[in-house]
Amino acid sequence: MDKFSLEEGTYLVKLARKSIETYMIKGVFPKIKSPSYTKLEKPSGAFVTLNTFPDGTLRGCIGYPEPILPLYQAVIRAAVAAAFEDPRFPPLSKDELGSVTVEVSILTPPKRIDDKVVDRESLPKMIRIGNHGLIIKRGFYSGLLLPQVATEYSWNSTEFLSQTCLKAGLWKDCWLYSGTEVYIFPAEIFSEVKPKGKIVKKEI
To answer: Do residues 4 and 39 make contact, with C-beta atoms less than 8 angstroms apart?
Structure first.
């Protein structure tokens, strides 16, 4: 995985906030020239997360697990979707802009692991909390949880698998059954310390 610098991460977080502000005011995506950072032009998965400040409650989170768009374009679209299209929350209002922090997660392509084991009960051993995010797929159902979620809730690998099954709308132990696909992915995370404030690379 390419390692992204704080400068590159800062650019993406500021771009995410600018995208939300532009869409809120004008109803369109911002017109951005290709960034001077060549890595940001390469296709990459990305998620944008909004949290209320200072309590840190989730306010929106949407993104692209697969590298289908140039990274900076994925961040633009994910930011707008997180602010205005997350079905769990009402659209972000102008009054809230100054009271949410913006976080960008840059994903590696997901790697399937359930087909690498003979005994599915050994899957938790392949997951590193604080490093891996998870995707569960079964039929038409799919769920994703970012790496930082397991850390925030102090889950072990088994609970992380179960919670991702529930996120997919499946039963808790679906990861134990043949036909359920399990994917892992690392991510690099950049976040505002406070709304419109300093941006840091988040250690999870």
So the answer is: yes
Nearest CA-CA partner of 158 in 119, 129, 116, 117: 129
Handedness of CA 21, 186, 181, 40 (dihedral sign): positive
The predicted model scores a pTM of 0.93
List of domains in the chain? 6-108+188-201 (3.30.700.20), 111-185 (3.30.1490.150)
Query: Hey, CA dihedral for 185, 116, 150, 167, is it positive or negative?
Result: positive
Which residue from 99, 100, 81 is spatially nearest to 91, judged by alpha carbons? 81
For the chain of 204 residues, list the mean pLDDT of each consecutive stretch of 10: 87 97 95 87 97 96 96 97 97 95 96 94 96 97 96 96 98 96 97 97 87
Which tokens in the block code for residue 63? 């993104």
Number of Cβ within a 10 Å radius of residue 15: 23
Q: How far is CA 134 from the centre of its chain?
A: 11
Q: Cβ atoms within 10 A of the Cβ of 196, count? A: 13
